[in-house]
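Morning!

This is the sequence you dropped in the shared folder:
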Amino acid sequence: MAQQKTTRSTSTRKKRTKAKPTNKKLNISFDFLKDTRTHKVLGLFCILIGLYLFIAFASYLFTWKDDQMHFLPLSFGFPFSDAIVENKLGRMGSFLSHIGFYNLGASSFVFVFIFIALGVRILSTKKLFSFMNVLKYAFWLLILGSIGMGFFFSHKGFPYGGIFGDSVSGWLESFIGFIGTGLLLLFFFILLMAHIFDIDFDDFINSMQRIFKFRKFEMPSFSGIPSLADLKEKLPQVGDGDTTKRKRSSTDSKTKKPRTTRTVSPPKEDLVNVNEQGVADSKAKAIKLTPTTPPPKKKIGATGEKDLVIDIKAPPTEGTIITGISKEEDVVIEKGDYDPTADLPRYKTPPLDLLEFYGNDQAEIDMDELEKNKDRIVETLRNYNIEIDDISATPGATITLYEIVPAPGIKISKIRNLRDDIALSLAALGIRIIAPIPGKGTIGIEIPNENKKIVSLWKLLNSKEFQKTKMELPVALGTGISAGTYVADLTKMPHLLMAGATGQGKSVALNNILVSLLYKKHPAEVKFVMIDPKKVELSIYNKIEKHFLASLPGEEEAIVTDTRKVINTLNALCIEMDGRYDLLKKAQVRNLRAYNKKFIKRRLNPEKGHRFLPYFVLVIDEFADLMLTAGKEVELPLTRLAQLARAVGIHLVIATQRPTVNIITGTIKANFPVRIAFRVTSKIDSRTIIDTAGAEHLIGRGDMILIQGAESHRLQGAFVDTPEVERIVEFIGNQQGYAGAFELPEYGADDEDGKGGGLSFADRDEFFEDAARLIVSNQSGSTSLIQRKMRLGYNRAGRIMDQLEATGVVGPNQGSKAREVYILDLAELEEYFKRMNS
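The structure's back. Tokens below.
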């Protein structure tokens, strides 16, 4: 068998060798077509033709009577004759105009659009539109325009419809009548416009409802009989007594609607299986990483082709169970669905033209390189007595995946241990062996390409997966093998941790996530809480403060850079989280999506404290610096947010360049099921991030390993440059925004300016004196000491510590160090209490 395969591969190489000279001659002959200068000449020439036709056609509208005599009979040698014409572009312009208008009428102007569109498409390096689609739509517009012109202007002397339009419209009019022909043409025109512009008729109907303000019919009031509006005004609020309950029960009996608690099955996006009791099955999809359809896999050394289909399993998530109908629903007057974007109705998402397109990032299949790498892999394995039955390759933008099927009896560990030997034979950096590939009976060897492509964020955001997604918070992470676009839902992650060495792509990945959300969400739907200890990475987003940012009240800048303000911001988010849980409890829902859906349907009364809740995305660029300066004061509220905040729409995105165990602790890793590892320097750092080796073999420049549960995927992150982000935030910042940044709840720890000095003794916590005695006796101003000794929660212990600072017992916060205690002994403290009470 081995000899037969060797003979077949040898004969195949001979055939290729014979065919190569012919290909080279062809490449040399047509090299000028690949020159960008040739593209510019062709593009400008097409635009020139379009302008020429436009001027000629426009001039023909006024000179056709004078020039028509020259075309009876029509001669193709007319442009070269001595005839004198009135057309502004001479005999050639008059000749072309007559041919167009005589056959197709005024719809010949469509040819102007075709040539100009072709020229723009050739000149542009970006794929602004598909010329084939333009050609298709132009053809139908040409046909419908000619027939329509012939139908409506057949009685005019000018050939508005041409021979084609007049004859077809005349036949239709005799066949289905004048009105029938008009209706048929109108139907096809609307059909063409709906197909070109992808009209959403639901939005059109909703717009008509808002314009005409459709309302329910109300019975008029007669003398002596109160009107329906009077009854609604006199109707008492729900929960005021038994009278309300009796009225509700009578209303229920009339309408025959059961008031018992009911369970509504959640949408398919949240649950996969629902049992008979309506409880979510544990095997539900939580995160969707949606790849585009990959090109067919190229088989090497074997016959046939097969497609690479990557099936990404997902961890369980909680379903949305709506139980019952809240009491406040019955007193809410029907006003139509609530529109959360009504405050900024003219807001527009940034156009994709603000992003750069870095050429074709689709991998060009170099058969010579694939064949060379295949031979070296086979030769290296044979040197160690390892035979393989099959080998195939799937090229990507930066790496190529070679899948091998070992012969029976070969141990996988033998191939896994040969990583360095294969890297030596290929002279390549960043080789990674996947043994075995999950879900397949093959072993994967990932080898970097010699010619790597830059993956542009423009391509990811312009993909069908991103444009048509129904995800709540879609983020474009990058491309996989065969340039498949991976789009993930941040709400299903629900938190993301990124780590890697300096300069390997973390900040670019953060920008990708933020830009993806800016392109997809309205300012009323999502808010960013940005923490940037380095002070320069996220400062570019200051311009969208009035649109997308959230901060503590009274702050000059929404992006947090000071360590103390970071602690206050995290604790303010904890307060916001607790308040949201109270609202969810009142609304009898389990997550933010169900709550907002109820609020939009006006099933929750704003007078009861309900409001539309935007998503919060907490972004921390350099987490290691916070852990070194603040330690537990940062870790405790952050851990609490990671454990509880996902159900109320608060999601965390954390990046660090120091992936050590004292920074990425076990508590943090346990609450970040989705983690991304960029290139690191050691195997230990790789295990710290993704619990396995492999990140040390990445090639950098956005090359990443995404781990979700027990599965890992290698992706190439998209590149977005700083000028691109500046253009996007400039576009958003120039639009009308809110009065300021979204204000988080106030947190009492922010008393640095001495405002707490006037705090009355009655306003202090009941454990204030006991905590002061504890701090003075231990001479340690630590919040955790109050927590442990007095068994209090972190928030309450923090408030007591702030009161101690405001009254002068302890000094200000010093990061991870304990506060300085200003009172030396208990006797001095008691005297201090007497002076305060007097």
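Headline: The first helix runs from residue 2 to 29.

More detail when I'm at my desk.
O.
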